[in-house]
UniProtKB/TrEMBL annotation:
Native source species: Cohnella nanjingensis
Keyword tRNA processing: no
Molecular function terms, GO-annotated: phosphorelay sensor kinase activity
A GO cellular component annotation in the UniProt record: plasma membrane
Protein name per the record: Sensor histidine kinase
Residue stretches making up the HAMP domain: 329-381
Pfam families reported in the protein's UniProt record: HAMP, HATPase_c, His_kinase
Chief location: membrane
Keywords of the record: Cell membrane, Kinase, Membrane, Phosphoprotein, Transferase, Transmembrane, Transmembrane helix
Record's subcellular location: Cell membrane
Top-level taxon: Bacteria
Xref: CDD domains: HAMP
Bilayer topology term: Multi-pass membrane protein
Length: 607
């Protein structure tokens, strides 16, 4: 097995010199300290930068959100001027009569010119589409805009989507993503009669260049078009940047149009990279504005700081190693000197003395070593005396083992003599006493069978019957199937003795003792009951818990409380001894034990 020990670095470490161990331990502490300081500094810097960035992001998004709200309100108000155009309203509402198929091209041209004038006044408008209540379509789109070249089919599809959007919102105005598949933002609203707002002539859709909102971002800002996402009240992305609706972070956004609230930022994973998410929900528009700041970009400034920290740690470790090496040499110098002195003592020179090099632990070790050497001669002189004392003790043990056999032989002689003289009562009494004596002094274990315990009780009762005659009788209610049950030695004899000596009224000659046993739910329940004078319940409980000097004497001074404590020490709560008694009502002693028939196993685990 030594070759296995050689493969274990910790096993080989115990064979190193103390100086090497001290040097290695100091080196480990230095490296651990440098690593802890460097990690703490790096963590603190990253935390500080992240906290500042979160605060800056919130401030920037706050300002940007307010600007977006203003731009939304401004543009919605500007559409009112278009709805107030009398000529446009007259054509769309068909007040002068229905537009026939022959007159539709002329009406379309007039409306397109009016929309052209309105669109040129706002370069951010890319297209305007109108469908009146009679289903006539009118549109204009900027030629240079994305998705230009609209036709009747496309315009009809746009208006179908717009009317479905207004139907879902149950509002007169809605913002949504482009309804023609372009990178735009669309405003959908009913074409209302501004003089009678409960009357509408159709639906109008205005497609805006998303730059209408993104131009609000300042150059060099922490928020830019790539990391910006604007989601409307229904969770549809109006501006996505490079983070699309398929991202898990966007799918988890649940806008709340009723309240405006900030999210102080959380770290999430978007498109495979970790990013800091700052979020603002507008109470005016119901929009949610999100800003994703990649942590790689956020913590780029900490790289230089990490390099500086590593450099400082390397310099610190270098000088610390020099100091540790010098300290290890100084520490082991006195140890080597003490080791040479110990070798001389090992060779038999008890007159040598170690010279303390200081008042530290090693110096005190040298002083104690000198005291040890001075006492060694004294200790050697006592060795012989101690050996004699040990031999004497062993002799006493052997003698103690011989004495019980002498008593057995003596009682056997008396029993034989009584039998030869026809004294059968004395013979039975001595036989019972011999059985009790054997049970009390044999060392075969703390536990034995219930049948053996009952046999000891019968021997004890037989002896007491000689003295008391027929003053009491004993009834046994124990099923033969319980005879193999395992119980501690001498737990019933003290209880029977207590009933005879202190419970029964022998002068009346009506004493009765009942010994019963049964198994209930894996618990062996043994009852010793008498019809004697009884006692107060509080006094009975005090026998088990109080530190009382008066115990009921029994064989080998085993008392009632001793029975309870032995059971508790082996089996714990809820096992043990309890009493049911009252003055003048007799006493019932109840013993609870875990039921088992494995004697050897129980004795092996006994404490």
């Amino acid at each position: 097995m030594r070759w296995l020990e050689g493969l274990n670095p910790l096993g080989r470490l115990k064979h190193f010199r103390i100086r090497t161990k001290i040097l290695l331990s100091n080196l480990f502490i230095i490296l651990l300290l440098a690593l802890a300081i460097g990690s703490a500094a790096t963590f603190a810097s990253k935390h500080y930068i992240e906290a500042n960035t979160r605060e800056l992001s919130i401030n920037v998004i706050d300002q940007f959100s307010k600007n977006v709200d203003n731009k939304v309100e401004e543009f919605v108000n500007s559409t009112v001027f278009l709805l107030n155009d009398k000529l446009l309203t007259q054509i769309v509402s068909e007040r002068n009569g229905p537009i026939t198929d022959a007159g539709y091209p002329s009406a379309y041209t007039r409306v397109a010119n009016l929309l052209f004038q309105y669109g040129n006044n706002n370069p951010m408008i890319n297209a305007i589409t109108i469908r009146n209540n009679q289903g006539r379509l009118f549109w204009w789109d900027r030629p240079s805009a994305q998705g230009s070249g609209m036709n009747t089919t496309e315009a009809d599809k746009i208006m179908d989507r717009a009317e479905r959007e207004l139907g879902r919102r149950q509002q007169g105005i809605a913002w949504t993503a482009s309804l023609r598949g372009s990178d735009e933002v669309a405003l959908v609203r009913y074409y209302l009669d501004m003089n009678q707002v409960d009357q509408r002539f159709g639906t109008i859709v205005i497609h805006l260049n998303r730059a209408y909102f993104t131009d609000l971002l300042a150059d060099g800002s922490i928020i830019h078009t790539d990391n910006l996402v604007i989601v409307n009240a229904r969770g549809q992305p109006l501006i996505e940047g490079r983070y699309g609706q398929e991202d898990a972070s966007l799918q988890g956004v649940t806008p709340d149009a009723g309240t405006g609230a900030f999210s102080l930022g959380r770290v999430t994973r978007v498109k495979g990279e970790r990013a800091l998410l700052a979020e603002y929900r507008s109470a005016n528009t119901g929009w949610t504005i999100l800003c994703f700041i990649p942590l790689a970009h956020l913590l780029a400034g900490t790289r230089i700081l990490e390099t500086i920290i590593i450099g400082v740690c390397v310099v610190f470790i270098f000088f610390a190693l020099i100091l540790a090496f010098w300290f290890s040499i100084g520490t082991t110098r006195d140890i080597k000197r003490l080791e040479r002195t110990m070798r001389r003592v090992e060779e038999g020179d008890f007159n040598v003395k170690a010279t303390p090099g200081g008042r530290d632990e090693i110096g005190m070790l040298a002083v104690r070593f000198n005291m040890m050497v001075a006492r060694m001669n004294e200790l050697i002189n006592h060795v012989y005396a101690e050996r004699l004392a040990k031999q004497k003790a062993e002799y006493s043990v052997l003698l103690a083992q011989i004495n019980p056999h002498f008593l057995y032989n003596t009682l056997g002689t008396i029993r034989w003599f009584s039998r030869s003289r026809g004294q059968t009562e004395i013979e039975r009494m001595i036989g019972a006493l011999t059985g009790l004596l054997k049970s009390s002094i044999r060392k075969l274990g703390e536990f034995h069978r219930l049948s053996e315990e009952l046999e000891d009780v019968r021997n004890y009762i037989h002896i007491q019957k000689i003295g008391y005659g027929d003053a009491f009788e004993v009834a046994y209610e124990v099923d033969e199937s319980l005879a193999e049950g395992v119980v501690p030695r001498f737990i019933l004899q003290p209880l029977v003795e207590n009933a005879i000596m202190h419970g029964l009224e022998m002068s009346k000659g009506t004493g009765r003792i009942r010994i019963a046993a049964a198994v209930e739910g894996g618990t062996l329940r043994i009852v010793v009951e008498d019809n004697g004078v009884g006692m107060a319940p509080g006094f009975a409980a005090g026998l088990l818990v109080a530190d009382r000097e008066a115990r009921y004497p029994g064989l080998n001074s085993i008392g009632v409380r001793n029975v309870h404590e032995r059971i508790r020490s082996h089996h714990g709560v809820p096992y043990g001894l309890s009493f049911e008694t009252a003055p003048g009502s007799g006493t019932r002693a109840i013993v609870l034990l875990p039921y088992s028939t494995h004697l050897e196993e129980v004795n092996r685990h006994a404490v």
